[in-house]
Amino acid sequence: MNVTEVGTKKSRIHCSDNGYCQRDSAEHEGYDGVLTEKRITENNNTDADSGVNRLLERILEPNNLNKAYKQVKKNKGSHGVDKMEVEHLLQYLKNTGKELRKSILEGKYRPKPVRRVEIPKDNGKKRQLGIPTVVDRMVQQAIQQELSPIYDPTFSEASYGFRPRRSTHDALKKCKEYANEGYTYVVDMDLEKFFDTVSQS
Hints:
The chain is of the alpha+beta class. The protein has helices at residues 55-59, 62-75, 89-105, 134-151, 168-180, and strands at 3-7, 12-16, 21-23, 115-120, 126-131. It starts with a strand and ends in a 21-residue tail after the last helix.
C-alpha cells in the first residue's frame, strides 16, 4: 500500500492508495497549546511544575480533595488490587494524605494497576472492566473536577455521554427533535475494544 503524507508539523494526514485518509493525531487544533513540547509519552516523562494557572495545586486543594472523597464514597463501588474498600478510604487519607499530596506534587505518584473483571454483555460475550483502587479513583475524581470546567465547554453540542448536566433523557429529547425535523436514519456505532488501543500514558 502506498501512503501519501500531507500536512504541517502539528497535523499530518496519511492517505493510502485506496483513498482512505487518517489524521495521525486526535488533537483538535484548539488544543495544540495544552501539551508540553515533550508531550506525555510511554516513558512517563512528566514535569510537575509546568502547570497552567497552578492547575496541579488547584487539584490538590483540600476543598477539592474533600469533594472528590465524598463523590467516591457516594459512588461506592468495588475494591481495587489493594483490596481497600471505600469505607477505609477516610482513615487512609488521615494517615497518609500529606504524603499522597506530596508525591503528586513532586511527580512521583504512580497509580496502581487496575483490577480486571469480566461482566456479561447483552450479546452473550463478556466485557473487560478495569477497577482502579479507591485512592486512585479519588485522585481521578479530583482531577476531573478541575478539568471538566475547562474542557467541557469546548465539546460538541451533540455530545451527551459522560458530561455534567447532560443525561440519557437529554439525548433522547434531541433525538426526538431530529425526528420531528424529518431525519429518518439512525447509525449506531461502537469501536470494538477502543480503550484497549489508547496509550495509557
